[in-house]
Amino acid sequence: MRRWSWLGDRLALDFANTVRRRGDHYVEYLATPDDLRDWLAAEAGRVPPVDTHDAGAFPAVRALRDDVLGLLRAAARGEPWPADAVDRVNDALLRHPVVRLLHTADTPAELRLAGDGPAPSALLATLAAAVVDLLAGPDGRRLALCDAPGCGQLYLRERANQRWCGNACGTRARVVRHQKRVTRTP
Fold first, then answer.
1. Which InterPro entries match (predicted)?
2. What is the pTM of this model?
């Protein structure tokens, strides 16, 4: 799999899915400031540019990502949202509000920081706004965790009984289920 091959979904999901399950363990895709730089480049046009080696930028983004991941996983499971994570996401927006502007017919809305602020704050506010838009909007009810072995990625269901984020995960889950049935048969 290419490093950022899953990008292109809702920004909040792309951000949260920078922690991915591989087998029985989780892989951190934002392990270094250079990883964050690469993710920002892959998301160019959707997020403001940031000097990832700027003091405090990388730890602040990782801390917000951990909060976002906790919120989205709780929402996908139908559990109460972690209050501390809600407070920190809201704090990012209160410090640097983000407004939605009309853009083009192809991309109807653009998120932009209201007023001037340091680049890391603009990124944090943009990401926090994307999370609020997802959880507070109609797509929040479609949020799910992929049930396939070794995935666990957050995604938006297309239908109520959907259990996998995509065809590859569905195939992998069916193969594993088949192997278990065949192995149990004498």
1. ABATE (IPR010852), ABATE_dom_sf (IPR023286), Znf_CGNR (IPR021005)
2. 0.85
